[in-house]
């Protein structure tokens, strides 16, 4: 909190606004330094970060790591109605083949790229939409806050996956429709979180001090309240990435992901593996493990970040 100081000797007036901004920046910098220090000391954060980093590297380097192109079917000649070569049966295909003759290892690698793209873009859509609604509600209050929150409550009354399925069914069976559907279903979560965080910050001493100094509501919100309220939203974003990957796989599993059957995507691989469980169970196990491990990585890192930013645990 910045307290106006009396005039200094020689008639100089100390700029209390500048002092308030300087103190706020120092406090903010110290907060983030403490957060990063706690993250470095957290085994959970390191475990989650390693999994997420490996996932990102595999997705980014898919053209270099995958033995075959995304839609290639190099093993079609080895497929019979009653037998699909499994892991280790053919040296050229270490994880076996799928029903279409595609290399499972290549599809898993290309599937990481598809899952990362859907997860990041859908989370960005939800984050942007939620921040706009939360910012409006937290800044203006009154009837604006009431109207936005009632709309958010109505959307939240519908289960997240059911809402995403409904939107994807309306928009069509395309990858872009999946991203929009998952992102739209996440908007209420970010909106409520940012609004609650901003309302908490608005009652802080530094906001009252800034109002006393005559700063406008817009400047106080954008320069002080929003930067201090954004932390919980960032944490939620990392956790939402995990659910976005799972939701994308679920929509593809339900046949709403679009694309050809042989397209590499973990959820689609699970879909077409159902008919082959009796003779090729690995076709379901391998993409399922990839989905679970990726979601676990984002969840571990997000939980570690949340704990590092929690004042109750930071005080220990």
Describe the model.
With 316 residues, this protein is an all-alpha fold. 71% of the residues lie in helices and 0% in strands. The protein has one domain: MetI-like fold (Orthogonal Bundle). The chain has 13 helices and no strands. Helix 1 crosses helix 12, helix 4 (104-140) packs antiparallel against helix 5 and helix 6 (160-171) packs across helix 7. The radius of gyration is 25 Å and the shape is elongated.
Secondary structure layout plus pairing:
Layout: H1 16-40, H2 43-60, H3 62-65, H4 104-140, H5 142-156, H6 160-171, H7 175-202, H8 205-212, H9 217-229, H10 231-253, H11 266-273, H12 282-309, H13 311-314
Kindly report the average pLDDT value.
80
- First and last CA, distance: 23 Å
Assembly type:
single chain
Topology pattern, helix = H, strand = E: HHHHHHHHHHHHH
Poorly predicted regions: 1-28
Supply the number of helical segments.
13
Tags for this model:
316 residues, mainly alpha, MetI-like fold, 71% helix
Short description:
With 316 residues, the chain is mainly α.
